[in-house]
Amino acid sequence: MGEFELIERFFKRNPPPAQAQRAQAATDSEANQGADAGRVVLGIGDDCALLQPAPGQQLAISTDMLVEGRHFLPSVDPAALGHKALAVNLSDLAAMGARPLAFTLALALPPERARDEAWLAALAGGLFALADAHGCPLVGGDTTAGPLNLCLTVFGEVPAGQALRRDGARPGDELWVSGSLGDARLALGALRGEWALPPAVLAAARQQLERPTPRVALGLVLRGIASSAIDVSDGLAGDLGHILKASGTGAVIDTEIASNMIAACTHHTWPESQFDSETRRRLALTGGDDYELAFTAPPARHQAVLAAAQAAQTPVTRIGRIEASPGLWLAGADGQRSPLAARAFDHFG
User: Fold this and answer.
1) Fewest Cβ atoms closer than 10 Å to its Cβ: which of 75, 91, 280, 288?
2) Residue 52 to residues 17, 141, 219, 299: CA-CA distances in angstroms?
């Protein structure tokens, strides 16, 4: 099967006739109604895709690459791989409060994968299921032979001046995290043989590792409420460090809350010797691959944060606060503080 047949069979979704005219008409109509959804004017099949953001919108653009052996195990379910490849990009849009618009895919395939039609169909199925759920069509890309590698660029839109950024945290702001942290690292450790997990626990944690949920709905409702935001991909401590650096602030995290952020751990009985509070805290703070949102908001917006989370059907937890003095600290119940290194995962470190 050649390159163009592969694209045609697995990644090109035939649009209805006169797509461009209807898309532009819809854009004009919705613009008159004040709608904030952009439109794909031209997708796969030409030298470039054409996107038409709605009036008053800014484009949000992000690229992420997944490399076999570095970002995922060779044994991963191809449907899960397709899901995660798009999910990690949508998570970046969520952190900016941007609505998904479209994405491109650059795909490198080893010869054996290019010949495996069942594997390709599952990969495309996982990819498009998540794309459809977020109204985010594939509009172009590239394919080539090589080590397995998926590189996606996602496009979103956000009202001008309303994007959530990293540089808005202010002293006194509350520090929040969505969902749970550490489950992905918990699963990875089990798959690597670092520790053993009961089958039910491994299944729950592995879902977080291989099929993360991009918090797009939460990002959208946090516009105008959150003062800063970032998606947690390389570990909370390191990613929070990016907010602190950009904002010129520090932060303190409640130690007890941090050690209880792992959903799989808190929903099952664990041998204390295997997963004590210190281990849980380490997984939650530095584990990575969580794709949750860490964000800040003024204390006066506390109830607004809770209402936004309820509207987005996404759990959130207040884990600390922003301070004027630089540095990242853990605070125990006795008020004692210990420094926490704000280092993120580094591919070349």
Assistant:
1) 75
2) 18, 18, 22, 38
> H-helix or E-strand containing 130?
helix 117-133
Mode of pairing for the β-strands spanning 292-297 and 174-178:
antiparallel
Name the DSSP letter for residue 211: S
Q: Which of 97, 93, 108, 104 is nearest to 62 (CA)?
A: 93
Output the pLDDT for position 348: 40
Phi, psi (rounded to 5 degrees) for 280: -60, -45
Amino acid found at 214 = P
- Cα–Cα dist 148/119, whole Å: 12
Quote the pLDDT of residue 27: 37
Reduce the DSSP state of residue 7 to 3 states and report it: helix
Q: Tell me which residue of 133, 52, 135, 65 sits closest to 105, measured CA to CA.
A: 65
Beta strands in 179-266 (DSSP E): 228-232, 250-254
pLDDT tens digits for 276-311?
Answer: 777 888 888 998 899 999 999 999 999 999 999 999
pTM of the model: 0.88
Contact by Cβ (8 Å): 333, 260: no
Q: Residue range 241-262: average pLDDT?
A: 88
pLDDT at 179 over 70: yes
User: Reduced to 3 states, what is the DSSP secondary structure of residue 80?
Assistant: helix
Residue 247: φ, ψ to 5°: -95, -10
* Residues 66, 211, 11, 14, CA torsion sign: negative
Give pLDDT, residue 110. Answer: 94
- For residue 301, the model assigns a pLDDT of 98
Show the DSSP H helices in 261-338 as ranges. 263-266, 277-286, 302-311
Please name the residue that has the structure tokens 């006739």.
Answer: 17
SS3 100: strand
pLDDT (0 to 100) of residue 94: 98
Q: For residue 129, count other CB atoms closer than 10 A to its CB.
A: 13
Extended beta strands in 160-297, E state? 174-178, 228-232, 250-254, 292-297
pLDDT at site 66: 93
